[in-house]
Write a structure and sequence with these properties.
Helices cover 37% and strands 11% of the residues. With 253 residues, the chain is α/β, with parallel strands linked by helices. The mean pLDDT is 96.
Amino acid sequence: MTSLGGTSHIASVFSMADLLAVLYAQVLRIDPAWPAWPDRDRFVLSKGHAGAGVYAALAERGFFDVSMLDQHGQDGSALSGHVSHKGVPGVELSTGSLGHGLPVSTGMALAAQRAGKRHRVFCLMSDGECDEGSNWEAILFAAHHRLANLVAIVDYNKLQSLAPVKETLDLEPFVDKWRSFNWAVREVDGHDHAAIQRHLESLPVEADRPSCLIAHTVKGKGVSFMENTVLWHYRTARGEEYEAARRELEAGA
């Protein structure tokens, strides 16, 4: 779909694909036949540039026909490069400008808490967007209000758009920073389905605290020439590169 539409960020999609697979297949309480079900869990993709992954997950769960994915990135299509809720059942929030997903998710969790609702709010973030100060305001706010219904998942692939995270703005000691803001934190191999499921099925991690799952991932996971390579943040696979990537993914499936 990204190749057909000429869109980028395929490596960012691959780094979080296993997280989305577990969330949409085994964790999120959602109903494809009733996308606006009031008691559904809310999922917000804060790294909206990787929206193709969410569209694919929604199609596989039955929110819309898989054939619609071929329209991704085309003129007039509802499936824009950065994820959009307009005309796309199952998408809660349009994102793309980084640093907004967690603050909005925090507000959604606070509203649910005050209304006595039982649904949960999941926010999948990139590591690079943790450079944004708005996230740290939300992290402080969520712990203050004891939002145990809020779950932040960080796709920690250690590469930003143009350089490694460590060279751009080092996040370490990353786990300690979240804990010092009074969140309950766990780390996981972001490509190990069983481990991801185990962590996300026992929420909240601690009572009366928001939960954070730091998922260690590989950018471009599954395609040898894309893995851990900054080039593929923006590059689109076409022609021989597309065919080679597809062969590797099918061989590893």
